[in-house]
């Protein structure tokens, strides 16, 4: 996809040059500009040659924004380079305008855009839109701010000594060595301060650093930690939530070298820091917000891994849990581990209790396996409240009763007509109203469990709002707070209260929670998704880290059977053990990351058209296509999905094959297709 040789095309003879073009003189030196025109189709994904008028000679620098005539339209573009002559035999059109002489797509950023486009079978324009924010003229013309002239002092490395190889990793960053590691953070760790120390280690030797977190809450915390250690002028925060002017102002400050430490959400992975790049960090790489939702759908972990490899920077993938992708880097030897010893882990973690850990537990509460809030959960909550501490209640969903099951055996309640899940309409205060099918809408007036014959229903996954109501009745006089949806709490006081929260928005309690109840754990594990168990475990670990250590009375109750492997990983606080198990299981079944997978979505005709153009490597196979659920008036599927799977060693060949297939398909007479490599949920 580089702009060389036969891959280049030229603009058609003199389009848009007109009378003004005939009187224009070309620049005396390097009169030909190779321009990346803002067009989307793959078959137009290449630079086009234009003549540079002499009046633009000074401003038309590589990397600047320009406007050109293309197929009769005036379009934006980036000037990639200037050359002495074009090998196009026809007549070249003129560069119409230099929008800005600021070089925004040049050097390492341009090479990164090319690499990401190739990895994900995308176009240069697709990636450039993600990497370069929209221009803001007033901001661009502002005076350039002078960044800090002196490097900060090296940070204290004492806290990193709690981890095996932790102090050595910090030392490698200071020395500019390309160390790569997966960090397993302790449950009581101030992770944002630890990451700020790594950034300070890079900055102390005049190197840049990029630290990426999944969401705004984590970004606020990390920004404060970095500013406290390095000072406000040495750190800039980048995220899509910023307004256009402020985002461009901060982005320019990074590109111009005024700031060398960048923290941000996924947009920051393309931050154009001034070399040398000393450190890249991704925190909580299992969060799905690290995946860009627009083409070509790059993932922060993969982009930063490439940046570390190509620039020789240090890489850290950190979190309380561990993904199968991070485990693969460790097992392959490409990255090392930064983990604490078992003694440190036990002293920092809360006590975790699961269902059925011993016979005595079952004897005391025979309904422990079927009750939504069994006696062990009540006891843990009451004890924490008596001690004057808040209790966290994690609920997978917000709202009322998303799904129903048998009140006796817990079997999921299904529609007799289509086998879809039964549920009470959102907003219903109890189960007195007849449930209806969430797929076909049929009302069930006479439910009877197909497994045990019982005619009674109960909610399998009750949302946060209903849970808060029920807990308020069970714990009379205790304050009940909720966090989720549009009502997110950042912090709660160190006082008796029940805090009901959905995953990812659990507020921090001053001094830590006395207990945490992880409800509907079995429902989270049974979701029909590839990463359901990995995501459930990640959310459990995140909630459990908010609880006080066991020596201060902290306790976590997970409402799932203790013999389940993910529950065992939580009880033992051993995420790396489960990640290795998960990776081995996926390798056996041929799932990512052991295999590289691409999904192709679109109309049946469009999907088949693209599959006909794909030339897969020897290990390649096509699964499907299968309907995605939508049907038209005649009952025919409106959209289908096919999966393409190859050995991981052939991943680059798969990306190239899909790119070439989209080029050969051209505009596609059968409609658009959505091509995504490494989707989070391929099945």
Automatic annotation (TrEMBL):
Organism name: Actinopolyspora alba
Molecular function, one GO term: DNA binding
UniProt keyword Cytoplasm present: no
Protein family according to the UniProt entry: Belongs to the helicase family. PriA subfamily.
Needed cofactors: Zn(2+)
Protein's recorded name: Probable replication restart protein PriA
Cofactor binding, note field: Binds 2 zinc ions per subunit.
Pfam families: PriA_3primeBD (PF17764)
Domain Primosomal protein N' 3' DNA-binding: start-end pairs: 34-133
